[in-house]
Design goal:
Blueprint: H1 28-38, H2 40-53, H3 55-68, H4 70-85, H5 87-101, H6 108-117, E1 134-138, E2 145-150, H7 151-156, E3 173-176, E4 181-188, E5 191-194, H8 201-217
Antiparallel strand pairs: 1-2, 3-4, 4-5
Length: 221
């Protein structure tokens, strides 16, 4: 009896199936490959569910695989780093970050071309630097693309988007239930600007207005 597979022509132990099955003359590797190709979606869904329900086990299995396959993992990282440095990799990485931030657009290629061509801010007209880098400005409520501006203009852009858990109804103004007070809080270039706690909302809004004027004047550079 011939124990060679029909597809790969290698002598393997055959998969235990019935005589009526079409996989009677195929090895276990070829059988599993065809089964995976026919049921890709089911296997992916089941694997996602298992990973969500067993996060600790999945982490441990990944760590074991990396320890046992260090050479393969290093080669994979080298390929990924080379792909990210290429033009296609940079483009896909940039567009993926825009999508995570909430940009909704029909043509992402056009926005990327505008981002490459722009050398000065469309709002203040300043030239881009390492400290004041280039940014994509969009509406946080609708996701519509506005323009390409510098980091300062993007941070100082007033938006109508307010978080759902914000009881005060004003952006960057939080309400403290325990003390029944209001506080203004904002992060600007990694520096946290925080006011004292006001009993009246109007006092906190006046402080916010003064801080926005100081930010536009550039006192926090």
């Amino acid at each position: 009896m011939d124990h060679h597979c029909v597809k790969c022509n290698v002598c393997h132990l055959f998969y235990d199936v019935t005589k009526n099955s079409p996989y009677i003359n195929k090895c276990s590797k070829c059988y599993h490959k065809e089964y995976y190709q026919r049921n890709k979606e089911k296997i992916k869904e089941s694997s996602k569910e298992w990973n969500q329900n067993n996060k600790e086990k999945s982490k441990k299995s990944c760590e074991k695989w990396r320890r046992n396959n260090k050479e393969y993992y290093q080669k994979y990282n080298q390929k990924q780093s080379g792909w990210r440095k290429s033009e296609k990799g940079k483009k896909s990485h940039r567009i993926a970050n825009w999508k995570k931030n909430g940009l909704i657009c029909e043509n992402y290629d056009e926005v990327y071309e505008l981002w490459l061509d722009s050398t000065h801010c469309s709002k203040c007209g300043c030239q881009y630097t390492k400290q004041n880098r280039k940014c994509m400005d969009h509406c946080h409520t609708t996701g519509r693309f506005r323009s390409i501006v510098c980091h300062k203009c993007n941070m100082n852009m007033l938006d109508k988007a307010i978080r759902k858990d914000n009881i005060s109804g004003h952006k960057n103004v939080r309400y403290i239930k325990r003390e029944n007070k209001y506080q203004y809080k904002k992060v600007y270039y990694g520096k946290e600007i925080r006011s004292k706690r006001f009993k009246i909302l109007s006092d906190c809004l006046c402080f916010k207005f003064i801080m926005l004027l100081r930010l536009k004047a550039g006192h926090f550079d």
